[in-house]
Write a structure and sequence with these properties.
single chain, 103 residues, three-stranded antiparallel sheet, two-stranded antiparallel sheet, binds zinc ion
């Protein structure tokens, strides 16, 4: 059993788990409940972790995670609006002034 990924972003961790599941790689998320229940900023050792059960598939899993993260980054990068606000990458429009995201 090998830990392949850890992030403070629980949504990202479960997103990656779904990707590995879809490829038939058995994996578990650990610390998910801990950090969810604490309701406070967790130190790094309680970040949710993604563990791959099948050691033979660890390299494959890491490859999948790398490419998934790349896509995720491209989609989710925060952007700076002309009005000076920093906007979440998931938003196409500035919440402050209504301008569109630059490309
Ligand atoms: Zn703006």
């Amino acid at each position: 059993v090998t830990r392949v990924f850890s992030s403070e972003d629980r949504i990202l961790v479960s997103h990656l788990k779904n990707i590995l599941d879809a490829e038939g790689i058995r994996c578990d998320v650990r610390n998910e409940i801990l950090s969810g229940a604490a309701g406070e900023l967790a130190p790094i050792d309680t970040w949710p972790e993604l563990w791959v059960t099948d050691n033979l598939k660890v390299d494959f899993a890491k490859d999948l995670i790398q490419s998934a993260l790349k896509q995720f980054d491209e989609k989710m990068d925060d952007w700076q609006c002309q009005c000076g606000e920093t906007i979440d990458g998931a938003m196409a429009i500035c919440w402050h002034c209504g301008a569109s995201a630059p490309n």
